[in-house]
Write a structure and sequence with these properties.
- It is a single chain.
- The chain has 3 domains: 336 residues, Alpha-Beta Barrel (TIM Barrel), CATH 3.20.20.80; 212 residues, Class I glutamine amidotransferase (GATase) domain (Rossmann fold); 97 residues, Sandwich (Immunoglobulin-like), CATH 2.60.40.1180.
- It is built from 13 helices and 30 strands.
- It starts with 8 loop residues before the first strand and ends with a strand.
- The model has no long low-confidence stretch (mean pLDDT 97).
- The protein binds zinc ion.
- The site of zinc ion has 7 residues, from helix 5.
- It holds the Pfam family GHL6.
- It comes from marine sediment metagenome.
- One of its GO terms (molecular function) is beta-galactosidase activity.
């Protein structure tokens, strides 16, 4: 079970405040501050020790020249914490790490350098405090003393250490250390590996340092994302905070994809959105209430806690209207959270994340394609990596670009031999060289790239259910494969008259089908189904419904009894969590529709109710009751063939349904 259970209703209270504004904190009133939070049902707030401008908001003894020069309220941080503690509100402290504008100006030699020898981050004549400082510089010593002083002067519930990233640095300190460690600094891969080791070593050292002062304060190092890279350093953290503001560039798929991975790393986790319309520092903006509801309730549905970002204005007067908005959501969270505490996700499917194998560390589109397709299909799934145990999954999916090294091949072959089901697509299952299938269970041999693209899949039989039996374009080039013994083509491709080139082309886009058979398109061998096209990336790109339908049909073949079935639209999100001690399941249903209303901006304004939603849940034994919670309305249900069936009269936004075991 997860340790360090976080609170459910948290605020991340930014306070990056320049010295070019006077009267900093002049309007701060500790009781008004904490009463406003308490009234909005907030139970934890992260408050500011040191900001990206480089200023301190407490009465430092050691670093008096770093105290904000216009700080009108001398003990701002201390009194924020005291007022919160009086109302049983936790108050962890925020400290910036790699971005500090003041120190970057005072010690330009501490700024990380890119391989061209230039400073990383904001150029001199642009606004912004984004120069990354190097922890291999004497800055490391400053951080140690700074943290020690914070413990000396203030009560510390936890530390949120911000901007802690592996930065590819070629400063003189890093080059000396690389030389001493025998690292070839001129080699990009070796240098980047050194950068990752640098930051991980620093985190472990800092956690050990913090533990000298507190055995149990929470510790989190923020890099704006949590992924497979963080597994190796989880011991330095007490929990995960998944910074993911849908309007701030993360989008609406980043949180569900990331949380479905992070929640399996053995630590408690929270989502972090913002009250801002767009992103951090968007003063005087307000998120649409429906969007804030969706974002917070999604965190609960995915077994996480909630955090909402805000920024206190320079004068320190908390915005009542912001907390009217936040309170409207957090009071609902408060009513729901007893069905969310110690919640463990119940899932059928483990999706190996292509992120683990992506050299640049970003999230490949196949992650978002898989998230969308499975969520829209009502499936219950985690993202996993090559180190995750597979025992709890009925189906493992390898989307598009999962190279399979010998150890992973052995693990997956064993899983399939033991009755596990496997779906792979495109290059997933190939060896690391990419020239042969390492996964023999897929039943295919590698020939090369598909000779035609786009080509066309011809739906047939069970895999083609609900699709017209005619060519469907597959936009992205697949692989040419041959069937091995015992494998069967569930669907084959048709090829165009020719590939579109300047010498021969037809009409505006791709060449139509010549109605000639190509190769096998979807192949089954026993427990495994293989798609030769990159269906997950393609769905992330242009969302052809037939790609999703083919995947859902493959799942119907391999997983005839999924945990949840419903007859709602594809915009319903359904998740299932178990509370062991309460002996119950909590089914979360959400219906909010993010819309592209700005050219590059998705939002939600309206909650569109659904009526008479029919649900069928795979239930292990006789259920005692089915109730809508927290209001408690009982729902009539029938139970047969290992499933319980009932109708929800109305779904308006978010509904938890308690299944008492
Ligand atoms: Zn460096």
């Amino acid at each position: 079970m997860q340790e360090n259970q976080l609170r459910f209703r948290q605020i991340h209270m930014d306070y990056h405040t320049t010295q070019h504004i006077a009267g900093v904190g002049a309007e701060f009133d500790p009781d008004e501050f904490a009463d406003t939070l308490a009234k909005a049902a907030v139970d934890s707030v992260t408050v500011f020790g040191r900001c990206h401008h480089g200023w301190l908001y407490y009465d430092s003894k050691k670093f008096r020249d770093r105290i904000h020069p216009n700080l009108a309220y001398k003990h701002l941080l201390r009194d924020q914490i005291r007022a919160c503690h009086k109302r049983n509100i936790r108050a962890p402290i925020y400290l910036t790490i790699q971005w500090d504008h003041l120190l970057s100006r005072q010690h330009p030699e501490w700024i990380t350098l890119n391989p061209q020898g230039q400073q990383n981050g904001t150029p001199p004549y642009e606004a912004g405090f984004y120069n990354h400082l190097c922890v291999n510089s004497p800055y490391r010593q400053f951080l140690e003393e700074h943290v020690a002083e914070v413990f000396d002067l203030l009560p510390v519930d936890g530390l949120f250490l911000d901007i802690v990233q592996a930065v590819d640095c070629s400063c003189q300190n890093c080059r000396n250390l690389m030389a001493a460690a025998g690292v070839n600094a001129a080699n990009d891969t070796e240098r980047q590996a050194f950068a990752l080791k640098t930051i991980n070593d620093w985190k472990r050292e800092m956690t050990a340092h913090i533990r000298k002062f507190s055995k149990d304060c929470t510790i989190f190092y923020n890099a704006g994302h949590v992924g497979p890279r963080d597994r190796q350093i989880a011991d330095a953290y007490t929990h995960w905070e998944l910074e993911s503001l849908p309007g701030g560039g993360w989008g609406y798929l980043h949180f569900p994809a990331t949380q479905r991975y992070a929640r399996n790393l053995g630590l408690d986790s929270m989502g972090m959105t913002g009250k801002f319309h767009t992103s951090w520092g968007d003063f005087h903006s307000f998120k649409n209430p429906a969007a804030l509801q969706f974002e917070c309730f999604m965190m609960l549905a995915l077994a996480g806690k909630c955090s909402i970002g805000d920024q206190l204005p320079p004068d320190g007067k908390i915005c009542k209207h912001t907390y009217d908005l936040i309170g409207s959501v957090y009071r609902e969270v408060a009513a729901k959270e007893s069905w969310c505490s110690q919640a463990e996700p119940v899932v059928d499917i483990g999706v190996l994340t292509p992120e683990e194998f992506n050299a640049d560390g970003g999230l490949p589109p196949a992650v978002f394609g898989a998230t969308r397709m499975l969520q829209e299909g009502g499936h219950q799934f985690d993202f996993i990596d090559s180190k995750s145990p597979l025992g709890k999954y009925k189906v493992v999916i390898l989307p598009d670009t999962i190279p399979v090294a010998p150890a992973l091949a052995a693990k997956l072959e064993k899983f399939v031999a033991g009755g596990g089901k496997l779906i792979a697509s495109f290059k997933s299952g190939l060896n690391e060289a990419g020239d042969a299938f390492a996964l023999k269970c897929l039943g295919v041999d590698f020939v090369g790239d598909a000779p035609f693209s786009p080509d066309f899949i011809m739906p047939a039989g069970e895999i083609g259910r609900d699709l017209p039996k005619t060519e469907h374009v597959m936009y992205t080039r697949g692989l040419q494969v041959k069937l091995r013994k015992g494998a069967e083509a569930l669907a084959s491709t048709r090829v165009p008259y020719f590939n579109r080139t300047w010498e021969h082309f037809c009409s505006h886009r791709h060449t139509p089908s010549a109605h000639k058979r190509g190769g096998p398109g979807i192949i089954q061998k026993g427990n495994c189904i293989y798609f030769m096209h990159p269906i997950f990336t393609e769905y992330a790109d242009v969302t052809p419904r037939w790609c999703k339908q083919l995947l859902l049909n493959a799942l119907d073949i391999l997983l005839p009894q999924p945990l949840i079935r419903h007859d709602g639209p594809s915009t319903v999100v359904a998740t299932l969590n178990r509370q062991k001690t309460e002996k119950r399941l909590a089914l979360h249903l959400l219906h909010y529709i993010p819309q592209r209303r700005g050219q590059h901006f998705d939002t939600i304004e309206d909650v569109i109710p659904l009526h008479d939603l029919t649900l069928s849940i795979k239930a292990p034994k006789k259920l005692k009751s089915v109730r809508c919670v927290p209001d408690g309305a009982e729902l009539a249900f029938t139970q047969h063939d290992g499933r319980i069936n009932f109708t929800l009269p109305k779904l308006e936004g978010h509904q938890i349904i308690e299944l008492a075991l």
